[in-house]
Amino acid sequence: MVERLATALDIPLRQHNALLLAAGFAPEWRQRDLAAPDLAEVTSALDYMLAQQEPYPAVVVDRHWNLLKSNAGAVRLVEFLVGPIAPGTAINLADALVAPDVLRPHLTNWAEVVRHFIRSVEADAAADGLIETAALFERLMDYEGVRTALSAGSNDARTGPVLAMHFRKQDTSLRLFTTIATLGTPQDITLQELRIECFFPMDDATAMLLRSWAKAPT
Predict the structure, then answer these.
(1) Cys-Cys with 65: which of 1, 93, 210, 214 at CB 3.0–4.6 Å?
(2) Which structural domains are found in the chain, ordered by start?
(3) CA distances from 132 to 53, 125, 182, 199 (A)
């Protein structure tokens, strides 16, 4: 009965386990580290997707926007904006976007972007009911300027089919939009919660710049 209810309601695997535990049964769905040997084919597929996105940026994150994988295009973009990052540094892309001292100084339409992003995190928190997701939402809300941006509403002219992120550093300008993909038939909690975010140029100038970075000698 619990199995049928979870399936009918299309409940995420993590909450499916919680239902089973509440009913007195053992959890059914596993949660493995992405580096686990039996996930090798999936990680290989993720690496392939990241490589195919070159020279444009792409990243793999978990449900709470912790960076798990990135391609060279993403590294080049981040290093251009904020400088080199030490290998092995833990990065949370939600904090990097919303905090006042990482990407925000270079994101000219930060208020507009953060309004959309915070609403998506709020929806995640409402959907999964996890303490960790609620804590992420509250942490983001507590950053300087976030509540003001949300309360101001949107007066931005909608001049394009998608919301672009407009980065500017000195005389260099980049306009990017993103897509987010998930695995289609996950049977593992870790895999179900993965997100593959790919960044695409919004104009020819951005595309040419990203390609030129890829060709530049290291």
Answers:
(1) 93
(2) 1-30 (no CATH), 31-215 (3.30.450.20)
(3) 30, 8, 20, 26
